[in-house]
Amino acid sequence: MRNKLIKTIALTLALSSLGAVGASASGQAQWKLINNNWYYYDSNGQMKTGWIYDKGNWYYCYYNGQMAKNTTIDGYYLNSNGAWTLNRQATSDNAIVQSDLKGNGSIRYDINSTENDYKAQEILNANTNSVVLNSEYESMLFTACEDLAQGKNTIANLKSNCIGKVVGSKYRITNIVYLSKVFESSKELVLDYNPVNDKVNKIKESELAAYTPKSTYKYDKYLVFTGDSFTNDWEAMRVVIELEAL
């Protein structure tokens, strides 16, 4: 879809230079506001769907004609006005900030991290990221992952606040995925039992590791916790922040 859209953009610009864009030439194509939603009608009065180029911006209308806004379509973020602007650059207006990461959940007191948990976490996170961020943004995103795992924030709130935001003037967040699983501690311990390796191997064999990000660029973290004193169970989470390059 991205290559197709880029080709369409090039064709549109070429036609514009020739003065051959139908909507501009006829002057009859227009947006109509119906029940607080925008719909686009061409010069023949037909409601259009899919990608629409109008006055230097791209818009997207769903199958029913309603214009999309505040969402990501085919990897392109559409703002509150529904527009994805050609050659849009990262600005301070859409850069991610601490307030975007503010949680609305309740901290979990049934889990905590032990030394073995941290060691397992370090092994799992050794080569997960495909982006390089400075210390400020690295800290922000890791804290966001921790807050999700510890219940301080919810995935719905984080996605609502962060999708479409720019990280480090290099990447735009397109999706956030949160996975979690409770594991049972090994009942029988063998002579060479290693609790760190046991956790790492179980996580690698689980659905947490099976998830494949849909974006080439990702900030990907595993978090490992031990259950409370009343159970031998332990828990692992994976947070994948998917991005696109600007």
TrEMBL record:
Residues 1-22 form the signal peptide. It comes from the Bacteria. Cell wall-binding repeats lie at residues 28-47, 48-67. It holds the Pfam family Choline_bind_3. The keyword GTP-binding does not apply. PROSITE patterns: CW. Keywords: Repeat, Signal. The keyword Signal applies. This is Cell wall-binding protein. It comes from Clostridium neonatale.
